[in-house]
Amino acid sequence: MEGIGNGPRILLEFSFFGLFDVSITQTVLSSFLVMIALIIASSVLGKNLQKRPTRRQVLVEKGVTVLRDLVVGTMGEHNAHFTPYIGALFCSSVFGTLISMLGGVFRSATADLSTTITWALVTTGMVWYHNIKNNGFLGWLKGFTEPVVVMTPMNVISEIAQPISMSFRHFGNIAGGGVLTSLIYGALGALSSFVLRW
Prior knowledge:
By secondary structure, the protein is mainly α. Helix content is 67%, strand content 7%.
């Protein structure tokens, strides 16, 4: 759990054609490995689909159905097209968090605030885009005045604060869990050496 409290270590630095400097951190490495793993997994699981499904295909279809039902149940049928994005975000979050269990240079991607805040901002941008596309720009602005005009400042603040709050909450849960795990690991190691004299 090295680096949880201090931020990710920089693993590699180089200049990109002298235009700008690039830093490869533990977060970048973990995120790219998770992305590659998810791309390979989705490619393998989506191959050779048959009318008479295999066990693997049944499990994949069940997972996709559960995810779609979740999206439709919370966002409505008209937002079912968000299912792939929500699925990708969910898998990236789960595997981006669990990758730290491999140890070494791997660090939970979600223990870095830049990851969670980027997800929150992209999601907010998508929601705003679809609201403007469906309701028009003036209709989107009018939504801030509901249920009464007096609530407009609170609605604007809420719209800005919500993605920031969500990203800090997700980051805080994972970073806090990493710190607690490190403390428990250290305490158990000290107790073991004290009791067993190892």
